[in-house]
């Protein structure tokens, strides 16, 4: 996000770090990176560097219908990442640290939850980038290992690909009344009205493909393994941003890792994954998860602009993302 949340006191972030993780981080600098959560770079009194995240409990509908369910879902997701790293030995998992009670996220207000990850130097790509050819086999192997992992202590939620679909239906059902949350609320509602038929067609297509995918085996999936969530450090790939981890068909990761969002799918990537994992890729299920991503964007972007907001660089960016959203899914 480009600007700090208006309703979260930075002092509460520092207090949470001290209370739950024993990190006395008097030095905290807001980091305008990523989308969906807010971040700070922090330095503890011992000189260790940390990457701090504040998650909006109103903005993650895939975890549940209310803030309590979202907080519980965050804790399960981040606990799963810790189990994958510490219990399953997947060293490429760069996820949140558990506190002394084994908890990875703490609510600091009714709306905001804080988590912390060790700060690792490296470079990430962009969401719409493709993995370079020299990283193709490494990323295919990384996902093959993730999909074969069997965490024992914490199991991820099951993704039936319905959470985003149902959230979109909620948005569509609310188009008959004015949206009064802020300056971009009515423009967002107008965009949704204009595109409602296309969105409904995607929902219908989603439901047909979801029935087809019901028989696919469930594995542990990251959910968003695009280049923007891969940190290259010391010439190796680390997966970051674990709030979307879920049990799902492997195609939930593969459609995006193979560059299916923008342009043709990288067939060489899919061939490498099939060779390394022994799993045949189902093209219809790839399409299902591409549709699910679009529906998630509609629900998230429109939902953000429907809620209370003011004119900020972040809300301006969210409106720009919604206007530019493509609803044509092949």
General description of the model:
- The chain is an alpha+beta fold and 330 residues long.
- It folds into two domains: 1-119, Phosphorylase Kinase, domain 1 (2-Layer Sandwich); 131-225 and 244-330, Aminoglycoside 3'-phosphotransferase, Chain: A, domain 2 (Alpha-Beta Complex), CATH 3.90.1200.
- It is built from ten helices and ten strands.
- The strands form three sheets. Strands 1-2-3-5-4 form a five-stranded antiparallel β-sheet, covered by helices on one side.
- A hairpin with a 4-residue loop joins strand 4 and strand 5.
- Helix 4 (163-173) packs across helix 9 and helix 9 crosses helix 10 (313-323).
- The protein is globular and about 55 Å long.
Main features:
42% helix, 14% strand, Phosphorylase Kinase, domain 1, 330 residues, alpha+beta
């Amino acid at each position: 996000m480009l600007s700090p949340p208006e309703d979260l006191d930075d002092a509460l972030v520092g207090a949470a770090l001290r209370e739950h993780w024993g990190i006395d981080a008097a030095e905290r600098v807001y980091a305008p990176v990523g989308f969906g959560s807010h971040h700070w770079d922090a330095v503890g009194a011992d000189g260790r560097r940390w990457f701090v995240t504040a998650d909006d409990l109103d903005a993650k509908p895939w975890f549940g219908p209310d803030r309590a369910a979202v907080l519980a879902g965050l804790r399960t997701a981040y606990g799963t990442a810790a189990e994958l790293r510490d219990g399953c030995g997947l060293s490429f998992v760069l996820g949140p640290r558990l506190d002394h009670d084994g908890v990875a996220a703490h609510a600091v207000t009714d709306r905001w939850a804080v988590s912390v990850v060790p700060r690792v130097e490296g470079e990430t790509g962009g969401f719409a980038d493709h993995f370079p050819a020299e990283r193709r086999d490494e990323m295919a192997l990384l996902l093959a290992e993730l999909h074969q992992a069997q965490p024992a202590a914490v199991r991820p939620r099951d993704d039936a690909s319905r959470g985003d679909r149902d959230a979109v239906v909620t948005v569509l059902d609310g188009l008959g009344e004015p949206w009064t949350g802020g300056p971009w609320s009515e423009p967002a509602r107008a965009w949704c009205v204009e595109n409602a038929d296309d969105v409904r067609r995607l929902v219908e297509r989603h439901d047909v493909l979801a029935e087809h995918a019901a028989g696919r085996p469930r594995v542990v999936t990251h959910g968003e393994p695009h280049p923007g969530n891969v940190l290259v450090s010391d010439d190796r790939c680390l997966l970051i941003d674990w709030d979307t981890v879920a049990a799902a068909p492997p195609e939930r990761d593969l459609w995006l890792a193979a560059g299916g969002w923008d342009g043709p799918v990288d067939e060489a990537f899919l061939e490498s994954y099939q060779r390394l994992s022994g799993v045949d890729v189902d093209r219809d299920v790839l399409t299902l998860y591409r549709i699910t991503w679009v529906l998630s964007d509609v629900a998230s972007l429109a939902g953000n602009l429907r809620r209370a907001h003011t004119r900020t660089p972040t809300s301006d960016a969210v409106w720009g993302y919604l206007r530019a959203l493509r609803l044509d899914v092949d």
